[in-house]
Design goal:
Strand content: 5-15%
Strand order of the largest sheet: 1-5-4-7-3-8
Number of strands: 8
Order of helices and strands: EEEHEEEHEHHEHHHHH
Largest sheet: 6 strands, mixed
Mean pLDDT: 97
Oligomer: single chain
Low-confidence stretches: none
Number of helices: 9
Shape: globular
């Protein structure tokens, strides 16, 4: 791929092997504003790459270094997300500034970038995650409009659930809740609402906000078995 160099000063040593990719949306009015923030020493945030809506890919931090993109979060009980992941910011205003569909050219660049990353690092499809997956209490990105199915078709991520909702009718609540944690979400007993919403955004957006409805329960079991 051809990259546009846009170095950020916001990085440090990794201290772990790379085995994850975290996808974000920028959540700012324009890509230029997002790029400026990711390059600002005062902001103390960064990512390894930024993908513009027209498909341009900016390289901000070398993959060998730890970028500061995930913040406080966890996956499968591990809180060291930044140390083990590559962060990709995808330009989109997000829920605050007019959330919209991701252009085809942009997603084509994301797919090409992920394929390149896969040649360099042992990142399983189950470990290509959204920011909301690892930080469900704080984040919504890349959100329910992100076309995860296109990544899954290329073998780059787990696919959204496309089975029958009725498959979840016989799934017990306790089993569905346990699956949420087994997949990797931070979903302790009695405090699982944010994690459930994050799961629905990622795997069954038709059920977003519907609690443990049959489709969500079916999706939880399917994803647990695929992860």
């Amino acid at each position: 791929m051809k990259f546009i160099d846009a170095p950020s000063p916001n990085f440090d040593a990794r201290g772990a092997n790379i085995d994850m990719v975290i996808l974000h949306y920028t959540g700012m009015p324009t890509g230029a504003e997002a790029l400026a923030r990711l390059q600002s020493p005062e902001a103390k945030v960064s990512a390894h790459y930024l993908v513009e809506e027209n498909g341009d890919v900016y390289k901000l931090v070398d993959e060998a270094m730890r970028a500061w993109h995930a913040g406080v979060g966890s996956w499968q009980g591990d809180i060291g997300i930044n140390a083990r992941s590559i962060g990709i910011e995808i330009v989109n205003p997000g829920h605050e500034w007019g959330y919209r569909d991701f252009p085809d050219s942009q997603i084509a660049s994301v797919i090409a970038l992920l394929k390149e990353i896969r040649t360099r690092h042992n990142v399983r499809p189950a470990n290509v995650l959204g920011h909301s997956d690892v930080a469900p209490r704080r984040k919504e990105d890349p959100g329910e409009k992100f076309p995860w199915a296109r990544l899954a078709k290329e073998g780059l991520a787990l696919a959204p659930y496309d089975g029958l909702a009725e498959a979840g009718l016989s799934v017990a609540y306790e089993d569905a809740l346990a699956a949420l944690s087994e997949i990797g979400y931070d979903a302790p007993q009695g405090d699982h609402a944010a994690a459930l919403l994050a799961f629905q955004r990622r795997f069954c957006p038709q059920s977003l906000g519907q609690g443990f409805d049959p489709r969500t329960k079916a999706a939880l079991i399917a994803v647990k078995n695929a992860a």
